[in-house]
Each structure stands twice: as structure tokens, then as C-alpha cells.
Predict the structure.
Amino acid sequence: MRALTPSARLVRLLDVALAAWVAFWVVVGVIAGLEVSHLAVLADTVARTADSLRNAVSALAGLSQVPLIGNIVRSVNASAATAHAQAAATHATIDRLSLLVGVALAVGQTALGLLLYLPLRLPWRRDVADIRRALAADPDDPVLGLYLARRALALMSLTEARALGGDPWRGAAAGDVWPLAEVELRRLGLRRRSRGR
């Protein structure tokens, strides 16, 4: 008997919680990726500054033949070209980093939620599917009724037992297992359609 099988209500609540968890981390991943991508503005500023510097130096190209000034003009032009290339490389790195950060947050946290939840959810689903198939095959199966009644007895609170009225344990011992079995079916979100009804 699986005494720790969660109720359908709890599973639905956990499904909603997992969906909220996934949605939250996807949003966080997108926001983090966008925030990191905004750092590319710095690289763009450096590239524009390097372009401006190269344009200014090109205006002084006529002075490149003057011995001292020519060396300075060539050195500044080379530095501006290097700064522009590094700014372009930095922009590309920031683009890759923003994508990596966004995906890592969204996928990583989603995978964590699934890893924690699926070991509970999948066995529950198989268990409920097994009971659903057994009900479809024979809704009045006495073995199924006894199995469900015992599960109900193991999980039922005192308040639930009193709500059934009388002595449900004695009734189950006498062979009237379906009142208790119905309690377990309701807990699992299932319904029984007896052929005798």
C-alpha cells in the first residue's frame, strides 16, 4: 500500500506551483539577459569614440610626413583602430554572455524544479492510471475495493472517519468496503461507476 500517495488536490496545487516556478525563472532569465546585453552600450561608446578619433586623425594625415608629429598621428590612428576592434569583440562577447546568462537562469532553474517534482509526480500519475484502468475493467472488483478501503483507512483523519458515520472499519471488515474505497477515490480525483447502479 502506498500510504504516502498525495491527493489529486495536492498534485494540482504542485502542478500550478511548478508552472509558476518555471514562468518566474523564464522571466528572470529574459530580464537578466536583457540587462547584461545593455552593457554592450559601453562597447558601442568606445567604438564610436575610436571612430571619431580616427576621423580626427585622418584630418591630420597631411602631417604624417612631419617627423615627430607623423609618428604621433600614426600611433593614435593605430590605437583608435585597435580600440574599435576590441570594442566590436567586446560587443560580441556581451551578446553571447547575455544569451548564456538568460538561458542558464531559465533552463537551470526550470530543470531544478522538474528534478525535484517529477519523482513525486510520475509515480502518482502511474498509480492513478493503474486504479483508473482497474475501475474501467471492473468497478465492482472486491480486491480493488478492499485495496482502496485500506488506503483510505491509512490516510483518513479522525474527522473524515467520523463524517462517514457509524463504524467504517467494522463495515469494511464485514465486506462493505466501498464507502471507504469511495473516500480514497475522491482523494485521488477519480469516480466509480458501479455496474450495479
